[in-house]
Fold these 4 entries.
Entry 1:
Amino acid sequence: MSRVAVVLFNLGGPDGLSSVRPFLFNLFNDAAIIGAPAPIRWCLAQWISRRRAPIAQDIYRQIGGRSPLLELTREQAGALETRLDGLGDVRVFICMRYWHPMSDEIAREVKAYKPDHVVLLPLYPQYSGTTSGSSLKDWKRAATKVGLSAQTQGVCCYPTDDGWIAAQAKLVSEALSEHRGDQAPRVLFSAHGLPKKVVTGGDPYQWQVEQTAKGVVEHLNNNPATPDVSDWVVCYQSRVGPLEWIGPSTEDELARAAADGKAVIVVPIAFVSEHSETLVELDIEYREEADKLGVVNYTRVAAVGTEPDFIGGLANQVRKALSGSAELSCGLGDGGRVCPAIHGRCPLSE
C-alpha cells in the first residue's frame, strides 16, 4: 500500500505572549520579507521585533493571549485526512513557517514516516513569494538536511479551485441572505496587502486574489438560489512600514461605503483560518472604524475553515499533484500555470 505524506503549510502564530517577540523575529529575519543581506537582516529583525512586540502582545491579549492558528490548522488536517481515505496510507502533517512546528522538525517526522510520496500543500490559495514561496523554499532546505528523498510534488496555488470558490460563495451567500435593508450591501473582499514593489517585481499575488474574488462573484451570480452581487471591490489590509502598499486599502473602502450610505459585508478572501488579522483587525479594529465613519451595517464573513467544499478542494489538489509528473504546479495537475506571463515571479516561470 502506498504511503503518502501531505504537508500543510501555514504562517504559524505565537502560542503565548512570551512567544510573540521570537515569532516576530523569525518573520522579519526571513529573506522573503526583508531582502537585506543576512547580517543586516538579522539586526533589523532584532530591532523590529523588539519594537513591535508590545503592540503585538496587546493584539493577542484580545484573543486569549495566543494565536488559534495551529489548533484550527489541526482541524483542517484531520478533515483532509478523512477525505483522502481512498489513497492508501495517508498522513497529513502541519508545517508552520515562523513558529512551531517548523520545517526542520516536520521534515524529520515525515522522513520517519517513510512515505513513498510527499505532497506539499500551502494553505495560501494565492501564491506569493512572501508566503507559499518562502515556505516551500524552507521546506526544501529542511528536507535536504535530513535526507528526505521520497518523490515530492507541490501545489503552488489554487486561486480558482472549485471547492475553494464554492466554500467562499456559500459563506458570502449566507451573509447576503441575512442582510436586511433598502440597499444591497457592498461586498469588500479583503486580503492581506503587500508592498507595491513586490507586485511590480512580478509577484502574482494581487492578480490571483482578484481572480478569486471574480470567481466567487461569478459563482454567486450564476446560481439562481443565491443573491446576486453587483457591488463589490477587492481591497487590502494589514499595511505596516513606510513603503507604498497595493490598494485600495480596506480602511479607504470603509470610508467610501460610509460616504455612499452603503452597508458592507467583509470577506477574508485570502485567509482560510481565523487568526489575529480576522479576529482582531477585521472583527474589532475595522468594525470600530466603520462605526466611527458611520457605515450603516458591518458584517464579517467567517474564514472557510473546515467547510466541506474547501476540504474537498484540498483533497482534489492532493490527487492532482499525485497524478501529475511536475514537481510543482498551480493545481492543474499538468504542471501548467494560471498566471499571465507578466507575472514573472510565478514559480513556474522562474
Note: The first helix runs from residue 20 to 28.
Entry 2:
Amino acid sequence: MSYLKILLLAALASVSVLSIGQYLQTSHTLPPTETAHSKAIEWHKVSDILDLQKKQRKLIIIDVYTDWCKWCTVMDEKTFKDPYLSQYLNERFHLVKFNAEQREPVTFRGQKHSYVPSGRRGYHTLAADLLQGSLSYPSFVVLDQDLNALKVIKGYKDAIAFQEELNTIAP
C-alpha cells in the first residue's frame, strides 16, 4: 500500500472518530429552547417537596451531598451547568439538595430525621434512609410523585451519562 493511501486512510479514520465523538456529545441531550437556554437548575429544600407537589406533580431528584465531597462540587460546576441537562431536569423533576451531614432535623414522609454524631463528621438519618445505609457521595435519589424511591444513582456523572440514567425513568 502506498504512503499516500495510508495517509488518506488515517485522515478518514480521524474524521470518523471526531464525527462519532461529536455525535456522542450532542445526540443524547435535548436541545435547549430559547427561554431555557441559560436557565439554571432550580434547587429546593426537602421541606419544600410537599408544596412543590401540590403546585405540580413531578418526579423528584434529591441530590445527597456533603461539603467536603470533591465530585459533588464538580457536578455542580460542570454537569448541572449544562444547558441541555438543566432544561431536561427543570421540565421533568423537582430538584432538591440535601447535605448528608447537616445538623438541622428534617421531617420527611411524616418521620422526623436528625443528625447522628459518628466518627469525624457524623451523618443525617435522612441521608442514611434515602441511600439505604450506603452513604457515598454524590448520590441522587429519584422519587415518584408519592415520594417512593424509584432509583438511586451513585457517583460522579457528566451531563450525558446523568441524563441517560434518568431517561430510563423520565424519557
Note: Confidence is low (pLDDT under 50) at residues 15-37.
Entry 3:
Amino acid sequence: MVQVGLNHFLIVSAILFSLGIFGIVTRKNAVMVLMGIELVLNSANLNFVAFAKYGNFGLSGQIAALFVIILAAAETAIALAIVLNIYKTFSTVNVDEIDNLKE
C-alpha cells in the first residue's frame, strides 16, 4: 500500500505551479492569464496545507491558505472588472494588442 507523503503533495504542487506559469507566459487572452495566476495561487495553498500537516505547524497552514483564497477572490473580482473595461474600450482581451493604455 502506498502512503501519501509530503513529497507527493510537493510534486502535485510543482506541476500546478508549472502549468500556471506556462499559462501566464504563453497565453494572449487576459482571462487565460488570470486562470494561470489562480493555478499558481492554488499550488501555494497546497504547499501551505501540506507543510502544516506534515510539519506539525497546527492550523497556521490552513489559516494562510484561507488568506490566499480570500486574496484570490478579491483579485479575481477586480481583475475581471478591469478585463471588462478593457474589452469595452478596445473590443479585445488579448494582452499583446492592448498597448495604448496611457492615452
Note: The radius of gyration is 17 Å.
Entry 4:
Amino acid sequence: MGVSVLQKIRWYYNQRDLLMNYVRKDLKERYVGSIFGFYWSVINPLILLAIYTFVFSIIFQVKFGDSAGLGQSALYIFCGMIPWMTFHEAVGRSTGILLDNANLIKKVMFPSKILPMYIVVSHFVNLFIGFGILVVFALLSGRSINVYYLLLPVYVAAQFLFTLGFSWVASAVNVFIRDMAQVIAQFLIIWMYLSPIFYSVEAIPEEIRSYAYLNPMTHLIEGYRDIFLNETMPSLAGMGIYGAVAVVVLVAGYLFFTRNQHAYADVL
C-alpha cells in the first residue's frame, strides 16, 4: 500500500513540467488580448467585493462579527468569497475539461488526470492573489500578521485536495452525462448560499445552527476568518473535520476518475 502511494506521488512529480506548462498557458490565455491582462485577477475580486458589500451590508444591513461597520462587512465577505470563488471556478471549469480536450484523451499515453489538476492549480494562483489583497485590507483595518498565519498552509493544502477531488469527479461524470455541467452549476449556486459567505454562522437561527457544520465549507471559511480577521486560534476540531473530508473527497475522486478512465476515449 505504502509503495503504491509513493509510486503515485512519484508519477505526479514526474509530470510536474507538463502540469506547469498547462498552468502557464491557462493563465496567459485567460487574459490574452485584454488591456489590463493579469491585473484582472486583482480587479475582478475587488469589483465583486464592492457589489456584495453594498448589497448585503448597506441594503440588507447584514451584521458581520461584533461590528456592523462597512469595513468589517467588506472583510468578512471577502474572507469567505475568495476561497469559495477558487473552489467554484475550478470545479466549474473542470467539468468540461475532458470534453474540450477529447483529441488528447484519445491518445493512449496522455495523462488525462493532469487536465482537471492544472485547472485547480491555475485558480489557486487567484486564491493567493486574493489572500494578498485580504492581508492588505486587514492591516489597514488595524489587524496584524499573527502567529496563526502559520496554519494557512494547512488550510490551503486541505482546500486544494478537496477541490481537486471534486474536480476529478465532475470532469469524469460529465463525460458520460453531458447535462452534468448544468447540474453542477446549479448545485454550486445552492451550495454558495448555504455557506457562511454573506453571513456569519451566529446569524443562523440557533435551532438549526448545528446543521451549518455539516457543510465542509463552513469549517474552511471560519478557519480563514479566525486567522485573518479574529486573530484567534482556529478550531482544531473544525480543521480536523475539514482535513479528513478533503482526504476522503480526494481519494474518492481519484478512484472514480481512474476506474472510468479506460472508457473516456470510447465515449468521447
Note: The chain has a mean pLDDT of 87.
